[in-house]
Every structure is written in structure tokens, then in C-alpha cells.
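Dear support,

I submitted the protein below through the web form. The confirmation email said the job was done, but the results page showed an empty box. After a refresh the structure appeared. I'm attaching both so you can tell me whether what I see now is the final result or a partial one.
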Amino acid sequence: MAEPETESNEIALRAAEVAADVTEAEYPQDRQRKVAAFIKAVGSGARVAGRGTRAAWRRVEAARRRAGSGTGWLATQVTAMAPRLRVRDQAALREQFGGRPAEEIADALIERAARASAAAGGVAGMWAALPVLTAYPAEIAAETLVLVGIEIKLIAELHEAYGRPASGNFAERMGAYVASWAHRRGVYMIPGGVVLAAGSPLARLLRRRLAARAGRSAFSLGPLLTGAAAGAFLNSRETRRLGRDIRRDLRRGVLSGM
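What the results page shows now:
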């Protein structure tokens, strides 16, 4: 039997894969299919079918309790997920977008991420509308992880597009982008550094941001398809706003020579 930490790490790994795949997918049906498969897998693992079996999610629950309640577990997952995200560097972005300037690449990245976030919210809402007993907390966690992965990937690639990547190796850079996500600022505009140690101001801020994000994810699980529509709209708006805030800071950094 896999250890709880192993099960938990597998969720972070899969969330990173889904976030990257959904962001880079060309067609809406591909985005929806990838998110639906992940949410279904997590939701199914969280349900006990009345046979007294201990599904994988029960082991994950044990890991979550060790990490702390709700947002503590999500924060652990986010920090584990970030270094597993697939991030395109400046050269790859220029090649993929036909050598377009940074501003146009940034526009495309923000819009693609917004569409990916909308797909995550819409799929979660439709999954909740199915005539089965859904485990809402698990599906909220699954949607939240995918959404945060989409947004951290967006932040990382915006920094690359403007030629302003964070310093350090890949894992260190991704840790900086987690901090950027929590602060809603470009890496070079973050006050107080990027120390994610338990109990640090940044760790507390990350948990507050995750609580707010999970609360918005709950809209996706509203009655019937109204939840899907609300989730898609709120997710898209939030991701677009975040991308524009980060781009504003990056523009300032380029202009000031920071």
C-alpha cells in the first residue's frame, strides 16, 4: 500500500500535468476532457461506495490531517506542484508564437490561461450536476489545485516572455512564482522576500489566498449548470486580472531597469 505522502505527491504531480496540458490545449473539448478526468479521479477516490473499503483518498486524507486543516494541505500541495509544472522559457515562447514581441505573447498567455481556468470551473460545475453523490470538498480541492497551477504557470511564463525570470535553479524560481501568486505581484516587486517556511508571513498569506480561491471554486458546485456558468466566469475573470497585474509589474521592471 502506498504511503499517504506518496498518494499526496501523486495528486500534486497529476495536477501539475493537467494545469500545463489544459493551458496549452488548442481546443475547448481537449481542455474540458483533461480537467474532467482529473476531477473525476479525485472525486471518485474521495467517495466510499458503501462497501467499507478504504479508497486512496482516505490515505490522502491522513496526509492532509498531518499537514493541517484545509488550506494547510492545499499549501503543501501547491508547493509540491509548482516545481513539476511545465514552463516554457523565452526562446520556446518566441518560437511557438512566431517571434512576436513580448506584449503580444503576454496577451496570448493571459487569454489562454483565462480560457483554461474557465474550463476548470465549468467542468467542476457539470460534474457536480451528475446524479451521483459527489464529495464536494474533494472536487473543490481538485479544481483549486488545477486553477492555481494554471496561474503559477502563467506567472512563470510572463516573467520569461519579458526576459525577467526569477533567479536560482528551476525549483527556486518556481518557489518565487508561488510567492508571486500569493502576493499578486511580479517577483521583483514582492516585499519581504520569498521564504515559504511554516509560520512565515508568506506562508500565512499563501494559505489566505488559497482559502479565498477555494471559496470561489465552490461556486462551480452550485445547482445544476448554474454552477458551471458561475465557475467558468469567475475563474476566467480572476486569472485574467492576475495576469494583467503581473504584466503591469513586469512592464515597470523593464522600464526601470530593475
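Response: this is the final, complete result; the empty box was a page-load delay. The first helix runs from residue 4 to 24.
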